[in-house]
């Protein structure tokens, strides 16, 4: 993970072209015999999702017809977006007989009312285009994810967010005031119907974070704000003794603030990010380096070096890994963490600019096609660096205790934390409690970590036990909720019980889609309807498909055994024990 970032930061020429990602849907016979994947080219269980057919509607009428045809035949349906950035199996209909409905061409502006500050778009519109359409009318979306190549429908499926505890908070769905959604219907109504859900409709809280199991969203209306300016400053400090308390308070001090804790370096990067008067000088721009396009041959070379660092001799070269992590963090700081003061160069903080230039970026999918001479680093065509990027949200009230536990874990072996993204470490954003049934149940700290994943199934990660204990601690001890689009399978086991309004969501689901046309085995598992999202088999804990309960769930033949956590003793993790021999599968 450190290697590709160092590559980006040492480029002498900023590439202006890039091969945009392929469509995640691929069919071998016209629109039949199809597969669907995500941006990384693989799902948590490394399976291939198949479907009998795919449809690309260009109008709401065509969308209704596609749903009606599938509903009449009782075929499973799933929605695919333009870039499919969810790691989880949201787009998999299950089996081989389902239908994929792509919203790629449902990407237009329907209407904009600048006086009322309302924007209606089709669900396949990509966030970057929505941001620009709004800005042209003098409006903006107050908060958004930092990656702008997600669709509006995808945002609502997963509850994607930026960082803010102020106003309506950091989640995009909190600004939704209207939705048109196509759902199955009885034969007497033509097998499909458009439901118009307004701001006062009781079902809006189900629809605005839906996992795609209620139907296909056709149009979304958002309440926007007048275009404003932001001032951003990143401050790096030595890790304070009261880190846990500082993090818990930070979201209340800065409207768009976030925190990146680098445990191995004992450093903390505080983002001071607030609105300023529009008369404040500055024309800042965000162009985050990890989203730049890279030369294809360099992407492949970075992967080879990453595999050497992480897999040779069990990934025990901690000094090299920690050195790379430190250098990547320092280099990113020199570049202003992707911000420029004038759209070209970074000259120092604060960086001041208009919201639509400062809130998100996605350069590697926005650039002209160049025949795969360059691409996003994760493009599966190149088999470049691969990573896990799980996320979970810890209640703000529990965050200090959680971080104190993580700190105790770090103190046992600081270099183990070098496996985390060197410039990101433990990334923390802030999100308000949501009225959405599957939104955040309370004000929270949203934690992201990123670390190496082998492209070969069953290959252990260096210090996997430390990262897995951290995640289990958050989820099981502190009741964190997993991110619907990022987390590994084990994180969803029992998670639905942490949503107090889950029952209300399932009641709406039963009314909208009683035959489960838009449900799948995966969605039924994570929603607690049928089965468990964990997959218990040999090596399952190595892949994050289960929490180990016996040695065979790890890789005992490679020296990885199922052991209790070191700080959270109830955790069960795969730990490398040099020179150990497999005796039995008992803890």
From TrEMBL:
It catalyses: L-gulono-1,4-lactone + O2 = L-ascorbate + H2O2 + H(+). Belongs to the oxygen-dependent FAD-linked oxidoreductase family. PANTHER family: GULONOLACTONE OXIDASE (PTHR13878), L-GULONOLACTONE OXIDASE (PTHR13878:SF90). Coiled coil: none annotated. Gene3D superfamilies: 3.30.465.10, 3.30.70.2520, Uridine Diphospho-n-acetylenolpyruvylglucosamine Reductase, domain 2 (3.30.43.10), Vanillyl-alcohol Oxidase, Chain A, domain 4 (1.10.45.10). This is L-gulonolactone oxidase. Its EC number is 1.1.3.8. Pathway: Cofactor biosynthesis; L-ascorbate biosynthesis. Residues 47-227 form the FAD-binding PCMH-type domain. It comes from Urochloa decumbens. Residues 1-18 form the signal peptide. The keyword Plastid does not apply. The keyword Transcription does not apply. It is an enzyme of class 1 (oxidoreductase).
């Amino acid at each position: 993970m450190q290697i590709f970032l160092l590559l980006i930061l040492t480029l002498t020429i900023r590439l202006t072209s890039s091969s945009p990602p392929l469509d995640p849907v691929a069919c071998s016979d016209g629109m039949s015999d199809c597969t669907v994947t995500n941006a990384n080219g693989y799902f948590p269980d490394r399976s291939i999702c198949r479907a009998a057919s795919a449809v690309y509607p260009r109008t709401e009428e065509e969308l209704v017809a596609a749903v009606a045809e599938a509903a009449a035949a009782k075929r499973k349906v799933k929605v695919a977006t333009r870039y499919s950035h969810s790691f989880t199996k949201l787009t998999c209909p299950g089996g081989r007989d389902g239908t994929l409905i792509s919203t790629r061409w449902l990407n237009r502006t329907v209407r904009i009312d600048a006086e009322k500050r309302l924007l209606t778009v089709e669900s396949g519109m990509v966030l970057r285009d929505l941001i620009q359409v709004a800005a042209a009318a003098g409006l903006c979306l107050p908060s958004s994810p930092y990656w702008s190549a997600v669709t509006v429908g995808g945002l609502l499926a997963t509850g994607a967010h930026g960082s803010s505890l102020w106003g309506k908070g950091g989640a995009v769905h909190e600004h939704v005031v209207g939705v048109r959604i196509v759902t199955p219907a009885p034969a007497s109504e033509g097998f499909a119907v458009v439901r118009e859900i307004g701001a006062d409709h009781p079902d809006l809280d189900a629809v605005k974070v839906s996992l795609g199991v209620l139907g296909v969203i056709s149009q979304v209306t958002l309440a926007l704000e007048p275009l404003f300016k932001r001032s951003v400053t990143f401050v790096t400090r030595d890790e304070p003794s009261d880190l846990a308390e500082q993090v818990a308070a930070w979201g209340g001090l800065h409207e768009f603030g976030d925190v990146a804790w680098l445990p191995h370096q004992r450093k903390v990067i505080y983002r001071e990010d607030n609105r300023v008067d529009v008369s404040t000088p500055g024309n800042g721009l965000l162009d985050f380096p990890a989203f730049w396009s890279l030369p294809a041959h360099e992407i492949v070379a970075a992967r080879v070096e990453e595999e050497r660092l992480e897999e040779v001799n069990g990934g025990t070269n901690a000094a090299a890994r920690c050195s790379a992590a430190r250098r990547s963090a320092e280099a990113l700081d020199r570049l202003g963490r992707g911000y420029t003061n004038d759209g070209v160069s970074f000259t120092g903080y604060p960086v001041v600019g208009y919201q639509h230039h400062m809130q998100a970026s996605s350069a590697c999918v926005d650039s002209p096609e160049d025949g795969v001479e360059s691409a996003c680093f994760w493009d599966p065509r190149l088999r470049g660096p691969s990573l896990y990027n799980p996320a979970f949200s810890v209640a703000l009230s529990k965050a200090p205790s959680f971080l104190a536990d993580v700190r105790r874990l770090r103190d046992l072996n600081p270099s183990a934390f070098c496996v985390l993204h060197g410039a990101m470490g433990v990334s923390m954003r802030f999100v308000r409690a949501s009225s959405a049934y599957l939104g955040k149940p309370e004000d929270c700290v949203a934690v992201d970590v990123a670390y190496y994943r082998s492209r070969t199934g069953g290959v252990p990660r260096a210090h996997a036990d430390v990262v897995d204990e951290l995640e289990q601690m958050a989820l099981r001890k502190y009741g964190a909720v997993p991110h619907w689009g990022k987390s590994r399978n084990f994180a969803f086991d029992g998670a639905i019980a942490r949503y107090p309004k889950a029952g209300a969501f399932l009641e709406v689901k039963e009314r909208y889609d009683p035959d489960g046309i838009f449900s799948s085995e995966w969605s039924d598992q994570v929603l607690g309807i049928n089965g468990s999202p964990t997959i218990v088999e040999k090596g399952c804990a190595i892949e994050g498909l289960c929490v180990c309960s016996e040695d065979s769930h790890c890789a005992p033949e490679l020296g990885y055994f199922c052991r209790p956590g070191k700080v959270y003793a109830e955790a069960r993790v795969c730990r490398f024990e040099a020179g150990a021999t497999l005796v039995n599968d008992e803890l």
